[in-house]
Design a protein that fits this description.
The structure holds two protein chains of two kinds.
Chain A: E1 10-17, H1 20-36, E2 39-44, H2 51-62, E3 68-74, H3 79-85, E4 91-95, H4 104-111, E5 121-125, E6 142-148, H5 155-158, H6 160-165, E7 168-172, H7 184-194, E8 199-202, H8 211-219
Parallel strand pairs in A: 2-5, 2-6, 3-4, 3-5, 6-7, 7-8
Chain B: H1 3-21, E1 25-33, H2 41-51, E2 61-66, E3 72-80
Parallel strand pairs in B: 1-2
Antiparallel strand pairs in B: 1-3
Helix pairs in contact in B: 1-2
The chains are: A alpha/beta, B alpha+beta.
Chain lengths: 223, 81
């Protein structure tokens, strides 16, 4: 029995990373940074963990010594950029609107009118969020995850992906550790559980405690 | 909550693949998502349903299979005709 020809659905192979475009652009950025000799350090944390405070202190110390600049991401306002501008180094705000993370295209667009050759170190402060930024490569050399002593020591267990994609961890607001009954040992144990061998700094941007080790680390391998 | 961004990327890649393969409409998109990809299945399905409206992917089903680690890949698509 003959029946009319009907076109059937067919299966086609695709096999592509969903964030392929971001990854490609991040790779391009990374080679631009390498070519220009710019070391790029990104910072991720939950909102309020102290990224901007740490950056302000870091820029103030490094500013007179090296050619540094910063990009800061937030959903809205130029508040962080205004605050960081006090350190005297070039700062640019990226406002993402409703987007919960920075991606490589936002970084690329923000850098369009900056001359990378004139920068030794570029800091990128991501939007405060412990989930979404982990998926987006920004072309950075080093990703730093911040954990405030006031947040509780189990954050690494609750958000393993962001700790896993970061290179080093910084425990901030260490001056408040006792008041917050922060269990230091547990925090270190939890970090090592999700990212074995991860280097961890403890510091207070407010009192300056622990800043020396962080600054020394940033100056390591400096040409 | 970056599932909307992820959904938009999936739709874009699906539309590209559709024009490569010369189909008319996407019926289903198969993806794999690892446990560390930071993607919530429900939020992704919800975002996908809304974001594909008005595209050649509209009305298609998004089928999510368990991947490893940070996997986040489109594997294959069902297209018609």
């Amino acid at each position: 029995m003959s029946r009319p020809e009907i076109s059937r659905p067919r299966i086609v192979e695709v096999r592509e990373r969903v964030l392929k475009q971001n990854d490609l652009l991040a790779r391009e950025l990374r080679s631009q940074f390498r070519l220009a000799g710019t070391r790029v350090i990104s910072m991720v944390s939950s909102p309020g963990a102290g990224k901007t405070s740490l950056l302000e202190r870091t820029l103030t110390i490094l500013g007179p010594l090296r050619r540094v600049a910063a990009l800061v991401g937030d959903l809205a306002t130029e508040n962080d950029a205004n605050r960081l501008q006090r350190s005297g180094v070039p700062v640019k705000q990226i406002t993402t609107g409703t987007v919960c993370h920075l991606d490589a295209s936002m970084v690329s667009a923000a850098l369009a009118d900056w001359d990378l050759d004139s920068l030794d170190v570029l800091f990128i402060e991501n939007v405060g969020n412990l989930v979404c930024p982990s998926s987006y490569d920004l072309g950075e050399d080093l990703r730093v995850v911040l954990l405030a002593a006031t947040e509780g020591e189990d954050k690494p267990l609750k958000y393993p992906t962001i700790f896993n994609t970061a290179d080093i961890a910084i425990i901030t607001k260490i001056d408040l550790a006792d008041a917050a009954e922060f269990d230091r040992n547990a925090a270190h144990r939890h970090i090592q559980a999700v990212r074995p061998g991860m280097r961890v700094f403890e510091l207070s941007s407010k009192t300056g405690a622990g800043m020396d080790a962080w600054i020394a680390y940033l100056n390591e391998g400096r040409s | 909550m970056h599932e909307l961004s992820i959904a938009l990327e999936i739709i874009e890649l699906a539309e590209e693949a559709l024009s490569r393969h010369g189909g008319e409409r996407v019926k289903a998109v198969y993806i794999q998502v690892g446990p560390l990809a930071g993607v919530t299945r429900e939020a992704l399905l919800f975002s996908f349903g809304i974001a594909c409206e008005g595209t050649t992917v509209e009305g298609s089903s998004l089928l999510i299979q368990e991947g490893e680690g940070m996997d986040l890949d489109i594997l294959r698509m069902e297209i018609e005709p």
